[in-house]
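Here is one chain, start to finish.
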Amino acid sequence: RARFNLAAASIVGAVAVRLAAGVALTAWLGIEGAMLGTFLAEAVGVVIAWRGTHTATPTAPLRLERSMIVDTLAMTFGVWFLGSIDVLVAGHVLAGRERALYVAAGTAARAVLVLPQAVVMVAMPRFVAALRGGTDGPHAWRALRGALNVSLALTLVGIAGIALIGGRLLTGTFGGGFGNGGAVLVLCALATLPVAIASMLATFHFARHSRLALLPWIGVTTEFVATAIWHASALELARAALGGVSIQLIVAAAVVARERQRGVLRSIPIAAQETTAGPAASAPV
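Its structure:
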């Protein structure tokens, strides 16, 4: 838990510097100030993490194996691409005002993901604790269900806020000319719901040391294909992105349901399984 607290302190410190110094430097130096503020924020985050690791007294040395690093990068990039592949595609398949509108709407909608990502950070150590000992029985799945419920509730609140504000958020953030982009913004916000669920599921499976943590890559593929085909306008691309990322949600739900059943069964003692299966085994065929 101490390591997660240290990571949280590093992130909070970096965000605080980005909000304070970033805004001031941007108003003073423009885009160069924004870049400088970003650099200073990340530097502060690194310093906090470095000081924490050198002043703490760990109970055991931290060993980073190559496979662990590869698995972490694969999961992290999968979740990141799932939440941003549509904006990357929009920069290549749309032009002029449509491209600017989609990039603005997609960027604004991603603010919703701040809420469920906070839940992921809190849930991760609880997943690890629930899965300690190599079992992923009912207790672990209850932890996942509780984290998902909180994440879903916060994400829906964020989406509702986006829907209420609509185009006013775009004009207030990016200036005039985006007032009629409310529909694109709402669709992009709706697409954050499958992304939030995928992020939580990937984190849970990562704690289980399961390859199912790579499930977000299914959504990356389907979303990329959908947006590459349907992109006549920013609105059509937003619909395609929502449909593509929703496919990942359907697949993930089916896989999780199957894995939950297997996990709960594995947690039941052998004798109990035999007792449960006994009557069925002795029944006539």
